[in-house]
Design brief:
Helices cover 0% and strands 46% of the residues. The chain is an all-beta fold. The two termini are 29 Å apart.
């Protein structure tokens, strides 16, 4: 188990209330981002994908969708959250897919990923 501090308020508000929380993790999954029944999400830092597929290590009991954005966070056509094929299951090799577009189309370009998920933990993203 590891301890951390968190707040239910947005990160950019000037509210100084926090709680100490505890988290457990499975073998080979030291740390991850989790959302319960209330959906959560995050956006990655900009990166340059060097392989055709974007692979995710996650335990998704509910659902997970991803959006591929340009380096500034702008939505790329065909890669919106609604275009994302939902990810489910517990695997170290979920491949992110979209209905009518392929991540390989933006290989070696500066992009970011935005995730939305519920009842899931995300451990890593390989690109």
């Amino acid at each position: 188990m590891t301890l951390y501090t968190a707040t239910p308020k947005p990160h950019n508000t000037r509210v100084f209330e926090t709680s100490i929380m505890g988290a457990t993790f499975a073998v080979n999954r030291f740390v991850g981002l989790a959302a319960g029944s209330t959906p959560g999400g995050f956006m990655t830092e900009p990166f340059f994908p060097s392989q055709a597929d974007i692979v995710l290590d996650a335990n998704v009991r509910g659902w997970l969708r991803a959006e591929l954005c340009d380096g500034f966070g702008g939505k790329l056509p065909g890669f919106h959250l609604m275009d994302s094929v939902p990810v489910r299951g517990d695997s170290g090799s979920h491949v992110l897919r979209w209905k009518s577009a392929a991540a390989a189309d933006h290989r070696f370009e500066c992009v970011r990923l935005r995730f939305e998920f519920a009842d899931a933990e995300v451990y890593s993203v390989a690109f």
